[in-house]
């Protein structure tokens, strides 16, 4: 027996006495000592997990560095000015960086996690027979599936929560100043990246468990992840309760009602004397006279605007996250049920 | 008429008992009315042509598959999920010998240690070391023989009472095959492991097995001690008559198979009483017996008493028993 092989990592499970217990596993030397299925799952997917950790660390570093340089710019320009909260010239670059980071966090990351961690998680073991290898040890199929899913979900949740928090901290100082920043960048804050990632991840696992082929599962999971993104972007605005504001001082220049700062205007119409709404494009005529005639004909008296006040956003995000996490839980139950009944 | 055989099997513990076991896939029955018993402590060959249901039978015994009909008991217990007593005492080596290709050999053995409460690291490492397989090598870089050796180590490290091997040697060259068969026999002998090993090549098994279960088209054709199965048969050779074989032969003995070539006929029979007439009687080889049964699906199955699934066999098993008697 080589002495190099008799290093650390003895039987961590504390089970069968094995005097010759030797492991040349280099992974035993770093990180906490894992045992049982947890060790197996970590060892099998360590490349994916370390990639996730690295991306998280780099991402957080980038967010913090961007926050610092953004605040430096604002300080330099004497923002906030005594009278105005308008963001200074030169801030556009941070606007676009914040928007890019929000797409990465809210769209790209969930898709990647679903396709590269979720889809192969079980499918690869079913395709290559290693699932049989594991479940023919003294391990039940249910606990194997649960541990795999549990560790993957835990890792994804930790990484995305950390990234989301760091991003929120970067966005924080300027997040409420501007409609785009607040609603577009803000839609990838709080629980949303976590919920989108977990839903896509567990969806990928479910697809892989049923299809049993790694590559096919990855392709189908990509479709699923894109569908989740499309449905979410179509649907999430309707989670809020819009406020309607009506004016009765005409629709001329300067008559448009002033919305609260960073409010999101959903819909705007002309209000007639009878209380009906007509589309504001109805009277968009080529000449001013024709426009006025049209407005008079419809007896337009002012504007009616539906908007979402900023106070709606947190509730919308948490409601959306709750819906997605409920779906995730349903998919988890499905995977475990399928695994017990139909895995082999 | 009866095929009298020793009765010593019935007192032993059963490693496997199957009653009327059946498994239907979408394309039909892979296993049907399969009843037999494997006493503990035997090295048993599971023989049959490709598609005979060998893999299906093993899959059911280790709970990878659910039977459509019938029951199977492993050491008296239904094969439950991995944590049940039957699962704990059984190790299974699937045909493709799946291992994690990116794991090192040491990590593969650690897998065994982490996932099995009674793990024998010394046995496992000795099997690996005796083949000069480096512990630090990745499994994916090993040769077929070395990989099989690692898979054996993983199986024996569990200290199984029953080891099921599905075509363990099919992809190995004769030298490695011989070497690994010695490892297998040595370990099984040392630990008193019951082994059920499938193959479609009888030559693999003839030297090492003392028990045999022959499957064809999803049902048991023959089961029992190798010696008893052999001594129950006689190979008769004589001059052919118009019908090929003397008519009274079939009336007095159980004819498994008869063939004619030129002016001669050859018949494999289970004699019931002394063989008379101008015939040459010979002891058949195991291969001759096996081939005769596989070629003749209509021949009555032969189940030796120690291989009878009892005490309350499935109705179909009863039927088989009568046909054999």
Automatic annotation (TrEMBL), chain A:
Stretches the record annotates as Disordered: 1-31
One Pfam family hit: ABC2_membrane_2
Protein name: ABC transporter
Transmembrane segments: 48-64, 149-170, 182-207, 214-232, 316-338
Record's compositionally biased regions (Low complexity): 1-28
Organism annotation: Streptomyces nanshensis
The keyword Nucleotide-binding is annotated on this UniProt entry: no
Keywords: Membrane, Transmembrane, Transmembrane helix
Cellular component terms per the entry's GO annotation: plasma membrane
Annotated GO MF terms: ABC-type transporter activity
